[in-house]
Amino acid sequence: MIKNIDQIKQLFESFNNKTILVIGDIMIDSYMTGKVDRISPEAPIPIVSVKHKEDRLGGAANVALNIKSLGAKAIICSVIGKDKAGNLLMDIISKRELPQHGIIQNEDCVTTIKTRILSNNQQLIRIDEELTLPIPEIIENDFIDSINKIIKSENIDAIIFQDYDKGNITPVVIDEITEKANELKIPILADPKKRNFNRYKNISFFKPNFKELSEGVNINLEKYDFPGIYSVVKRIQKERFIETVMVTLSEAGVFIADKNGYKTLPAEVRDIADVSGAGDTVISLAGLCLSAGLKTIDIAAISNIAGGLVCEKPGVVPVDKEQLLIECIEAYTE
Fold first, then answer.
1. Tens-digit pLDDT profile for the chain (334 aa)?
2. All residues at 6 or more sequence positions from 225 whose CB lies less than 8 Å from its CB, including other chains
3. Does residue 254 contact residue 247 with C-beta atoms inside 8 Å?
């Protein structure tokens, strides 16, 4: 367990030597920001006078961006459309100086765009343009081959499955890459969605949020019933050979369990502007901390602080490494 400031600083410095492979659904997070000063005469809805537009990296690409912002090397593996949105996404990835060699563009796929319309830092509506069918088998095979080549050629410290149920992560992709990673003793983390929730096995770290856990096991759970959550999590650990399970519980904090039992941490007290992307930040920190050999409670604590930090800013944004370091030092020296 981290005991002093020097250990925290050494941890953050060690991130600079890490390479994390991020497998999953990447997308464009598009923002239209403006002012509301009247109601539409056509329907009882606000009219937004748009003042600013911006396209950002979303989904698994935001996980990669968080990892890069923490000083590590992030390699994205994903399949997107060979379409206008896909070309724009590749351009944004290039501008953010992230590697592109793990990304496949295909004419039979559609690039996901999530458009958020905001006023006064509040989200009014979100518009999703997407196709969520699993990638076809022929593309799936190419995708697996591409991932395996990267695993072979790079010194990978951890692999993150960042699943948004958009079709990139299939049962075959999970099984094939998990087997290869376990052969090479590379830690595997998964941030699941409902479709593949029960497919992740023989992995190091499993991070559903409360909704995903409840839907995944099809049980009505209460957020503050920690013994009840643990009974479910313990079964998942045993049946699927998962070392650590961390459940984010929004206002109820964070729950984390390993072979020694479970612990909980309270939610960070923040001025919340937007919770979008907080889960991406949490899994990014978990991946780096796990690869650095941190204890379970420290992984939960640092990830929790990071997730809280990004909620203070509107839209999906990566965590600020220097600010996170300051807050971690404060938390560990209180």
1. 787 898 999 999 999 999 999 999 999 999 999 999 999 999 999 999 999 999 999 999 999 999 999 999 999 999 999 999 999 999 999 999 999 999 999 999 999 999 999 998 788 999 999 989 999 999 999 999 999 999 999 999 999 999 999 999 999 999 999 999 999 999 999 999 999 999 999 999 999 999 999 999 999 899 999 999 999 999 999 999 999 999 999 888 899 999 999 999 987 765 554 455 678 989 999 999 999 999 999 999 999 888 878 766 655 667 888 898 988 898 888 6
2. none
3. yes
Choice among 83, 280, 298, 320 that is catalytic: 280
- How far apart CA 285 and CA 18 sit, in angstroms, is 12
Q: Please report, for residues 6, 43, 86, 95, 199, the alpha-carbon distance to residue 125 in angstroms, rounded to integers and kept in the order given.
A: 45, 15, 23, 28, 32
Query: What tokens does 106 get?
Result: 């295909």
For the question of residue 280 being annotated catalytic, the response is: yes
Q: Where are the domains of the chain?
A: 5-33+49-333
Q: Which CATH architecture has domain 5-33+49-333?
A: 3-Layer(aba) Sandwich (3.40)
**3-state secondary structure (DSSP) of residue 115:** strand
Neighbouring-strand partners of residue 29? 56, 114
